[in-house]
Amino acid sequence: MMESVTCSSAEMTDGDLKTFGSSGHQILIELPERNSIHRIVIHQTNIEDLILYTGASKSQGDWRKVAKIKDNRQTTFEIRQAIVTDRIRMRIDGTMDDVRIAPEYVANASGLYKVNVRRGKSFAHEIELYEFKDKMSSEEKAQSDGETLF
């Protein structure tokens, strides 16, 4: 909901749980400035396995691995990880819609490789990023538990 936040699929960050987005097997979120994020919530998704990276430097394109989710079975889940960044990348390694198949061999530029899984299309209805507020009134604390939603 924060202005100037971009996502590889705009529907994932539009604030509406009725819409859903898909961006292949990678989700890229860019924030207008560096923020201290402590929680990421992914709503109504089929993602089972993912690796979370943060951008170390926009100019160099460096990425740092900060979390890994394996064998998730919930449609809504959260990642609690303290990070300071202006870029987040999620590489999706598995979905609930993946199908195991009989091994087939596929050719590419580097030769043959074996495929055992037909990858399903990954999707999410909403992705929320939370940061801590610096200064709050006691009324704001009671309402938000000290978090800001992007």
Essential attributes:
9 strands, 150 residues
Helix content: under 10%
> What low-confidence regions span 5 or more consecutive residues with pLDDT below 50?
none
Distance between the termini: 5 Å
The proportion of residues in beta strands is over 45%
Rounded to an integer, what's the Rg over CA atoms?
17 Å
Q: What structural category characterises the helix and strand content?
A: mainly beta
Query: What is the general shape?
Result: globular
Main sheet record: 7 strands, antiparallel
Number of strands: 9
Note the run of SSEs as H and E.
EEEEEEEEHE
Task: Report the total helices.
Answer: 1
Give the overall average pLDDT.
85
Secondary structure blueprint with pairings:
Blueprint: E1 6-7, E2 26-45, E3 47-57, E4 62-69, E5 77-95, E6 99-108, E7 111-118, E8 124-132, H1 138-144, E9 147-149
Antiparallel strand pairs: 1-2, 2-5, 2-8, 3-4, 3-5, 6-7, 8-9
